[in-house]
Amino acid sequence: MTIYLPPLDDNKPEHFPPISSALDDPDGLLAIGGDLSPRRLASAYRQGIFPWFGVDEPILWWSPSERAVIHPTRFSPQKSLRKFVRKNEYRVSINQCFDDVIQHCALIRGEDMVWITPEMRSAYKALHRQGSAHSVEVWQGDELVGGLYGVSVGAMFCGESMFSLKPNASKTALWFFCEHFRRHGGLWVDCQMMTEHLASMGAQAISRDAFLTELETLKKVKLDESVYTPQCLGVQDD
């Protein structure tokens, strides 16, 4: 079966095809080509689109029919996780070593599963330098043992990837970030596609239409800039 994908115009970095034209198979595949400039990436996320492609593949853009989201206001870690974090003395920070976090996210998956290509890493590092991509780090002593990174879009945080080198490190990163994000007015964490791991942390599946409708509202919300100021994060352990 031949699949036709509209190529993106290099001279129009903010232009994407209508989301309604995304394919059913593969689910959500929308367009091909273009570049990964900060301007194009920022525009994509504001339209509910993200890049995902492998090594030696062209740039592919997606907006799947179902999205996984977490509501920080409803996120509640299990008692076992609270106890584990206290016992292991994990410390969590934000935007203190973005480059290391994205590097770990790429390496931990191995060569056969790498979609965070060198091109992708360079693109998100550039977006980070412009203030739109952010990392959360989990430390045990002075050792980086887990974390996550993603892109900010108003009151939504679009999570890209996470990693763990020690037990529960990625869950800890998400927990601390959700508490911090909520306190600063954040309303949704986009997890893109549902997995068992995300479901175990409270992610819910919603339709693409519902996601895009909410995105239109959330992207217009301006959060306090201090939400992404490099700092150590604290949580309310009720």
How is this structure best described in words?
With 238 residues, the chain is an alpha+beta fold. Helix content is 30%, strand content 24%. It is built from seven helices and eleven strands. The chain has helices at 38-46, 79-88, 98-107, 118-129, 169-183, 196-200, 208-218; strands at residues 29-32, 50-51, 60-62, 66-70, 91-94, 133-140, 143-153, 156-164, 188-192, 204-207, 231-232. An eight-stranded mixed sheet has the order 10-4-9-8-7-6-5-11, with helices on both faces. It has a three-stranded antiparallel sheet with strand order 1-3-2, covered by helices on one side. Helix 3 runs antiparallel to helix 4 (118-129). The radius of gyration is 17 Å and the shape is globular. The N and C termini lie far apart (55 Å).
